[in-house]
Specification:
The protein is built from 18 helices and 27 strands. With about 700 residues, it is an alpha/beta fold. The chain folds into three domains: about 300 residues, Polyphosphate kinase middle domain (polyphosphate kinase like, 2-Layer Sandwich), CATH 3.30.1840; about 170 residues, Endonuclease, Chain A (2-Layer Sandwich); about 160 residues, Endonuclease, Chain A (2-Layer Sandwich), CATH 3.30.870. The strands form four sheets. Strands 14, 18, 19, 20, 21, 23, 24, 25, 26 and 27 form a ten-stranded mixed sheet that branches.
């Protein structure tokens, strides 16, 4: 958007600072003493992982803008790029300090009281030291390659986010300081290690960096080790592809992935015990400023705690396990196409099972009446049953088209592998439209039936990933209605062929009609409010930063529309400003499950409310730089199901926090006489009740 399109009189929150406020809320989950301790540890790993991506993409981009003197945008909140970078680094420094304070003062002690001991250097007892030394000699030493740093050996290239140990060696020939060497740690080695066997109900864990620093002397015979400190460098990791200038997108992305491993450094994480000489040598070698140094009081890269979370078998220290409800009507025993032909289906994950989505593709792969499958893939799991089903379908002689988004951030390598595997078995693999990421979630099945060809469609708000479907909240919609399936077919033809301006009546598809239609619906609510008709907007998205949309919401608020926004992460809209946004409330929900569904409700005056769901957040990239699909829910029962998801989210006073006009978040008020209410707990209880109801029913016969 050009600066002229913005309305500078309106206030906006800065995107980077809003994201940092989001990650602060994630950190608060790690500090939440009502959560089981292993769940708190998991949230701490999320904070670290989120910061990695923030530095790789957002901070690196901000640094580039500062270096190239990019002009300010009229619709920003007025913070200059240099000032914004300074504030960003100050906030992240404090966040990292709080992150490690949480680890050292809260997580580690409570884990210890539960028999899970994370030990640092110097805390291992004699028996544990013997075990650690043997582990180092047998499993670690053989794969390490120490790299000297001197006139004959220049400073080595440090790969992005790789673990390294910088070692100072005593040498009488060095007048000042010490000799130095780097020990790169191969990614193949596990970062969190269980030490020996459990003793008296207690199990000890150490980080790999602890073991290497303990026995680093072994790698430098004859040179006493003066110091050994783990460190990690984060680099600019934004994938740049000029699609107009390439012949083969797959090859180009593979080359870019290699280049990204050694792009410009944007952050140095290192042990706080490092001495100044070693630190200055690192800064000089990496061309990093001291503002980008993060001295940590504990293990480097707390995101590695996720592996420990998976390894530690203590259900009593995790959230209570939950099995998603699988309605009999659409279970694996049913013939899913008969079910969908009879009636549209809507599933709310993870409370309702994702299995029918997988079964939809599996049955299509084996059904002799199916002769074509078209599927988009943005992110999927490492052992994806969806990909396996597509391969099986192709081997069974069906025409299979897979539209794979190679530029799905941080999943590029995985998606390249899927593309190659699918092409090997004859699947027609397409990489989407030039200049646009394919983010929509669509699957189209073409089946020959007694009355002719019939199409079946799955549309969703989340990825085709059975693993993340267990803890992401999303919706899946199945239909055989021609008004939907015909347009989904047109959408796939647009993605695989040529279409400058495709026409859609039911579907809202970015970048063609999605943005304009949302603005039209917001304006319609404003007109209804002015006419004294019912006017209300409820929106649930992950991010809201599109300025034209924000401006329309401001104006709808001024017209009298009640607007309730559920925005998990970044929000550029400032609520509760008198005369601008006083009728707008913004809340964020962070709970055991990741709120991921995108839902849209418009009161529509005295008519039937309009309810939409889909793949798109309210960001410029979703409206203009991605293929997104948002679609109406028309069946009254299914529409009520979506509204319930919104309504219960608005009632949440446990996991919800309200955004204030100063950018801070405060807990949702309980209200006098009101009980605590968690929307996620409500849906879990409802799923369990539905399961109990169906338990005593007769087993479903295949349709």
């Amino acid at each position: 958007m050009s600066p002229k399109e913005a309305k500078p009189s309106y206030p906006y929150f800065n995107r980077e600072l809003s994201w940092l406020a989001f990650n602060r809320r994630v950190l608060e989950q790690a500090m939440n003493k009502d959560y089981p301790i292993l769940e708190r540890m998991k949230y701490l790993s999320f904070v670290s992982s989120n910061l990695d991506e923030f530095f790789e993409i957002r901070v690196s981009g901000l640094m580039q803008q500062v270096d190239s003197n990019v002009s300010e945008y009229a619709y920003s909140d007025g913070i200059g790029r240099k000032d914004l970078l300074k504030r960003t680094l100050e906030i992240t420094q404090k966040m990292v300090r709080d992150e490690y304070r949480c680890w050292n003062m809260e997580i580690v002690p409570e884990l210890g009281t539960n028999g899970i001991l994370f030990k640092a250097k110097g805390e291992l007892n004699e028996k544990e030291m013997i075990w650690a030394e043997k582990y180092f000699k047998d499993e670690v030493y053989p794969v390490l390659t120490p790299l000297a740093i001197d006139s004959a050996h220049p400073f080595p290239q440090i790969l992005n986010k790789s673990l390294n140990i910088i070692v100072g060696l005593e040498d009488e020939t060095v007048v000042e300081g010490c000799k130095m060497a780097i020990i790169p740690v191969p990614r193949i080695l596990p970062r969190v290690i269980s030490v020996g066997e459990e003793v008296d109900g207690k199990q000890t864990y150490v980080f790999l960096s602890t073991i290497i620093t303990l026995f680093a002397q072994t790698l430098f015979p004859g040179y006493p080790v003066y110091s050994a400190h783990p460190f990690r460098i984060t680099r600019n990791n934004d994938l740049y592809i000029d699609e107009e200038e390439m012949d083969n997108l797959l090859t180009e992305i593979e080359e870019e992935l290699w280049k990204m491993r050694k792009n410009s450094p944007v952050r140095l994480e290192i042990s706080k015990q490092v001495n100044d000489q070693v630190l200055q040598s690192l800064l000089k070698a990496t061309d990093l400023h001291e503002d980008l140094v993060y001295k940590v009081d504990g293990p480097i890269n707390l995101s590695r705690l996720m592996s420990a979370y998976g390894e530690i078998d203590r259900p009593d220290l995790k959230f209570e396990s939950f099995t998603p409800f699988l309605p009999n009507s659409i279970s694996e025993r049913s013939k899913i196409f008969n079910v969908i032909k009879k009636e549209d289906q809507l599933l709310h994950h993870p409370y309702e099972s994702f299995n029918p989505v997988v079964d939809f593709v599996k049955q299509a792969a084996r059904d002799p009446l199916v002769f074509a499958i078209k599927q988009t893939l943005y992110r999927t799991s490492g052992d994806s049953p969806i990909v396996a089903a597509l391969k099986e379908a192709s081997l069974n002689g069906k025409q299979v088209t897979a539209l794979i988004e190679l530029k799905a951030r941080f999943d590029e390598a995985n998606n390249i592998e899927w593309a190659r595997q699918l092409e090997e078995v004859g699947v027609h693999v397409v990489y989407g439209l030039v200049g646009l990421k394919t983010h929509c979630k669509c699957c189209l099945i073409v089946r020959r039936e007694s009355d002719g060809l019939r199409r079946y469609v799955h549309l969703g708000t989340g990825n085709y990933n059975p693993k993340t479907a267990k803890f992401y909240t999303d919706f899946s919609y199945f239909t055989a209605k021609k008004s939907f399936t015909g347009e989904v077919a047109d959408l796939f033809n647009t993605l695989t062929g040529f279409a400058k301006s495709p026409k859609f009546k039911k579907l809202l598809v970015a970048p063609f009609n999605l943005h304009d239609h949302f603005i039209k619906m917001i304006r319609s609510e404003a007109q209804n409010a002015k006419a004294g008709k019912p006017a209300r907007i409820i929106v649930k998205v992950n991010s809201l930063i599109d300025t034209p949309i924000i401006n329309e919401l401001y104006e709808a608020s001024q017209a009298g529309v009640k607007i309730e926004l559920i925005v998990r992460g970044i929000c550029g809209l400032v609520p509760n400003i008198k005369g601008v946004s006083e009728r707008i409330k913004v809340r964020s929900i962070l709970g055991p499950y990741l709120e991921h569904s995108r839902l849209f409700y418009f009161e529509n005056g005295e008519g039937e409310p309009a309810v939409f769901i889909g793949s798109s957040d309210w960001m410029p990239r979703n409206f203009y730089r991605r293929i997104e699909c948002v679609f109406p829910i028309e069946n009254p029962d299914l529409k009520a199901k979506v509204f319930d998801a919104l309504d219960f989210a608005l009632k949440d006073n446990v996991a919800a926090k309200l955004l204030r006009s100063n950018g801070s978040y405060t807990p949702a008020p309980k209200g006098r006489g009101k009980k605590e209410f968690s929307s996620q707990d409500h849906f879990v209880k409802t799923a369990n009740l539905e399961r109990e109801k169906e338990k005593d029913q007769e087993p479903l016969s295949p349709l």
